[in-house]
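Hey, resending since the last one bounced:
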Amino acid sequence: MCSTFKFLAAAAVLKRVDEKQEKLERFVPYDAKEILEYAPVTKEHLKDGGMTLGALCEAAIEQSDNTAGNLLLDAIGGPAGLTNFARDLGDRITRLDRKEPDLNSAIPGDERDTTTPGSMLGEMTRLLTGDVLSQLSRRQLEDWLQGNKTGAAMIRAGIPANWIISDKTGRGANGATNDIAIMHPPGRAPILLAIYSVGSTATADDRAAAIAEAAKIVAESL
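The structure tokens again:
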């Protein structure tokens, strides 16, 4: 999964908000020992002693901040909590076993921290177009995805400029390069797309370009 887990983690937080078990305004404290190597937003807010849960969701999705991702996991019961959320959505495959940065190992044959494109599409369908979340939470989740700053070279690069896209990327070891998106062509129903690639020895730029090309093929065929 790599960082695409952050989509599910934020959705699980919103589900708890809908159930009155959580508030996006809740302040989540953290300190320097929790700051990982890639943590551009949470590092900036160290001076504040923490961030609100909603701001952490935004940081995890829009900037893929790894410390924010881990703090979201803490709010939903850890990796097991995310796996249980997937099971509640009817997904029997997706699983999260570790936190950042270990979950990015992408070891061949290792099922830890994995999903399939079909499984993720099922979850995206229920979370972004179904009634699992309230209308307000669905809109918030898609707004965060639309604000993603890490996907310009992937699916976003392969679709027409007048399509509205909201996506979450993920990268890891062994060439893992992923992007999941909901796209809104003008005047048409939304299109969901999940692309997962692992094992390539191509450069990071070439892997991103391959995802963009796949997205272009999808866009031109629909």
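The chain has one domain: 2-221.

Sorry for the duplicate.
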